[in-house]
Amino acid sequence: MHYVSAERISKSYGIKPLFTNITFHISEGDKIALIARNGSGKSTLLKILAGKDNVDNGNVWIHKDVTVALFEQEPVFDEQATVLDNIFHYRHPVAEALRNYERIIAADEKEPDVLAAALAKLDELGAWDFEAKVHQILGKLNITNLNQQVKTLSGGQRKRVALAQVLIDIGFEHKHVLLIMDEPTNHLDVEMVEWLENYLNQQKVTLLMVTHDRYFLEDVCDVIWELDNENLYSYAGDYQNYLEKKAARIDSTLASIDKAKNQYRKELEWMRKQPKARTTKSKSRQDNFYEVESRAKQKVVDAQVELQVKMTRLGGKVAELKKVYKSYGEKIILKGFDYTFKKGERIGIVGKNGAGKSTFLHLLQGQEEADSGKINIGETVVFGNFSQQGLEIKEDMRIIEFVKNIAENFPLADGSTISASQFLTLFLFPPDQQYTYLSKLSGGEKKRLQLLAILFRNPNFLILDEPTNDLDLPTLSVLENFLSEYQGCLLIVSHDRYFMDRLVDHLFVFEGSGVVRDFPGNYSQYRIDERNKEKNKDVPLTTAKEAPAPPVSKAVEPEKRKLSFKEKREFEQIEKEMPALEAEKNQIADKMADPSINYDEIQKLSFRITQITSQLEEMEMRWLELSELMN
Questions:
Q1: Yes or no: is domain 1-66+176-237 CATH 3.40.50.300?
Q2: E strand intervals along 119-212
Q3: What pTM was computed for the model?
């Protein structure tokens, strides 16, 4: 069943075309990720499908039985109402019963009769399963104060409330729902993102979303759409397949452009030789010339930053922290922190919100003072701080003027320089956009310009605080390629697992109460380590002091119970699955031994082999338990 059909639709923003004559279908069960540069029309297309915007040309048809639910970048609430009333705004008997029940539960004083009536209503509607799902959603998104007015919420809290609202809303629609999500992982910590991945995978939902989180995209979606140069391209499969197919498409396009250019030269020579009076035959050839010219002048933009920066020289001494203590009242941030930074270090910083990550960055840069201890920064260190605050603009000006106010030229490692305009072009600001006013830029474009302004000052110690928020995937790829070649020190705070895995060598884990652990690995390895610790928490350990249990005499030895039907099925299933996992493990080991394999693939395979090893260990333990009962 087609939920949505769009036939030859076009949309422009002012005089700028976003997409032209694109056609697509969304069928039941599709899970689609939409990729494009900021300003290419991603959010506009989502709003058109949600009925919040119109096309200039073409037709959009949505099946009459389909409900469209939209999660927007800037959610719209009743600002005076509470979180509770905004979440349960949906006109549905179960929604109204749950809202009433949650209001009573959240009240300081509960009237027994009123509570009993609310419980009876939930029983009558059979709403307890859904109530459990609601509590799971609220709990996982850390929404605790339901009586708080929405207007008092922070930006991150607003996004989480909006996400809870849309996930709960689609629960009331039991059949045909198209869920449209615009950057759902922004402002979520890693545990929340992982939960949302699992939640969306378990739900029978048709999904179209924009996201820059590539692990999230890969785990949730099975089709990737790309808006590029006013066209829409579709790729079935995961993110890796998309990259391969896109590279092949660009190669094919470049070949056809070269062919058109050769034809264009011949046609141009013929056109110049023709007299002004055109015959019918020559007029036809002239029309063909303009078509060839259009193809020959196509631009294929797949920009990657490939420049060697002349970084400010970094001396032998970088930064040294000795017995650093920092607290705010009773809240301890650092408790005797010791570390000596070395040249070229790449460190990620992780931990729950409020654990002190941003304070640590401020201390390092001298923006705050420690309570005690020493922070010694090398004389040659030049910090570049890419903060969450965004671009600082004292007055509105054009992009090129903003950069030239920093410097006219940018020095490269080989001794040459490039102009401010050339540097802007490398960071995906083409010449025709460089005279745009800063106030006209999107959030993602301002982030990109903020990064460029920092790099233009040639720092040798980069501090990146949540740099991936509001950046599109093409820009993220540009940033990652640049940073992977960067010779200075990197200190990164980010919830983007893919970004961290590509760039950091080890992690500072802020565990709270002033404890900071140095973890020797990347983000995915850290998460695997954390999950293994959680699993082992429930396993009782036998201590050396415990006396062994006395042997049970044969006379009183309890009779072994037999396997239940369910346990027999489980035993048979384990025996089938274990050889398959072993085979997959061996195949992965062979792939990892291939010297031509790239870094990203090694990371994915390493993550998978760890998963398989953990699964096999659990299966072997369970197999032993069940085989004991069979003997």
A1: yes
A2: 177-182, 206-210
A3: 0.70
